[in-house]
Amino acid sequence: MHRSPINISLRAVLLVTTILSLPAAAQAADAAGKWSDTIAFSGHAEAGIAFNPAAPGNDENVGSLMTDRANQVEMNQLFLTVERPIDSSSNKFDIGFRLQGNFGTDARYTHSLAETDHLIHSRYQFDVNEASVSMHLPTKMSFLDSVDLKLGQIPSPFSAEVIDATQNQLYSHSYIFNFGVPAKSTGALATAHVNPMLDIYAGFDTGVNGGIDSRGDNNGNIKAQFGFGLNNLADGKLSVVALTHMGTENPTNYGLPHTMRYLNDITATYKANDKWTFVTDVNYAQEDVTNSTAYGLAQYATYTLNDNVSFTARGEMFRDNGGWVVVNPGYFDSANGQRGLPVSAGQYVGPHTTYGEFTLGMNWKPGFVPKAIAGTVVRPELRVDHSFNDSKPFNSSSTSLGDNTSFTPAVDVVVPF
219 and 248 in contact (C-beta within 8 Å)? Predict the structure, then answer.
């Protein structure tokens, strides 16, 4: 595979930065304490079950990835994290890092290519969720307050949801998160804090879920992401982040032309008061090789009853114009398809379909759990998916073509430690 000079330089920068980061971080630590005192260790475990009264013959909840197995208990995540966070508000140089690993069923869909994606041959797999170095670079420029730079393998900043279960309000994920944005990237991302109201994002990487070696970049071409953030709007209640990822994503092994893919997402968060928070997520994806598009809108509303109980509703519409976006892959199909390797014959590809889903969930922090796991959250939810055209993608089996509606009540437990 041909590797461009830019791509080779990217690998060199990442390697050198990683090797040099720890001594530099030690020197950047506050004089009031040792550098080792600023390192934090944490983790969490998540397990749950997504029921499906239709008991589909293929045991799949179509439209979901992390909750794709019907009527089966899963340990979705076992996260371990070691990190030294940076202080983005400081007027001094700061450097930190984060190393975060995950073992569980979610790892099937979050792999950086050619890294641990065939390490374990089962539904339970291991993934490096993040391996990055962060730097805070204050400036004395009148038009720029500071720059935060992150290098390495980075979870995607796109969409209203993230991989880490502790940062989401619901157990199941939106179509936008599952199919409309990258899970991770390998490269560099800079956030320029122009002023308290405006941030500018710019970076380059090896592609959607790309890795760091020649197998992890499926066509050897560099990709880019960029956008902006607006903060402290509407008396500090509203923030907006708009991002684009663009590049040639088609694997060379498939013999496809290296045409462009564009992934675009806008997330707006409005905290009306101490009780109500509203989040709007708008997504648009374009794949030039198939001349097709996908787009969606998800609206979230969260009501906080008290410190232990909150309720979240999510309503979403997602249009897959080409039938190339919404899939339910097998254990290795997600990474294999992106790398240009064969996928299983049973991989489901939906028709041209407008999908809708409505999910109502609760976050409950039991007060009786031991102090060591006091942040434990139980998250029951009720979810309905529907196809708004003639397709019947849900609950298919060898004897049935499926339904246009799926009902999947679910519950998970997230235990921090």
Answer: yes
